[in-house]
Amino acid sequence: MSQETRTRLLAGALQTLVEHGIAGASARTIAGAAGVNQGLVFYHFGSVDNLLAEACRYGSGQRVARYRDRFAAVASLDELVELGRVVHAEERAAGHVATLGQLLAGAQSHPRLAEATAAGLELWIAELEQVLARVLSGGPMAGLVDVGGLARAMAAGFVGLELYEGADSAGAERALASLEQLALAAAVVEEMGPLAQRALRARLRRGGAAPTSRG
């Protein structure tokens, strides 16, 4: 029963963020959403901030697990961008974009929440990094790209798109289309002959510093 109550409070916290925002996330509103006594918030988590932080990790873990098999099936950059479109649409429809927006807003003034939000985003980054390491290995970009940095750039880009779409849906669509064009360009590079690939690698080495490892 104790674990069931904790899970209900975690789900209630996420629901409260969507419906009332970070400013309305009180012990009373969260307990109401969970259908439990508000004293249980403090019994199980100690404070509302602790509950929100745990809810962030809990929600991210659930969402990443939902797409893990589809990430594992990605075999190219264009497939990764295509999956990004699917994730973008499903997460927005499920209300998780609104939750993320509230968590990011709260993270600006709540260090505990900032730490948890970063940890939640790291779960997405880890999935992206695995995909990128797999699809880039053996190609002309192998060893020339900081895969961890690229994974973070992509995660940050998609987070921005999720939030930006609410203000400018046409602009968000253009951004996604541009990512698709870049993925197609990368596919063309993969099909280049070995001489052209070697020339490209040499040019890229001259053009920038060696990538750093993820640390």
Automatic annotation (TrEMBL):
Residues 26-45 bind DNA. It comes from the Bacteria. InterPro entries: Homeodomain-like_sf, HTH_TetR. Residues 3-63 form the HTH tetR-type domain. Signal peptide: none annotated. Keywords: DNA-binding, Transcription, Transcription regulation. This is TetR/AcrR family transcriptional regulator. It comes from Streptomonospora wellingtoniae.
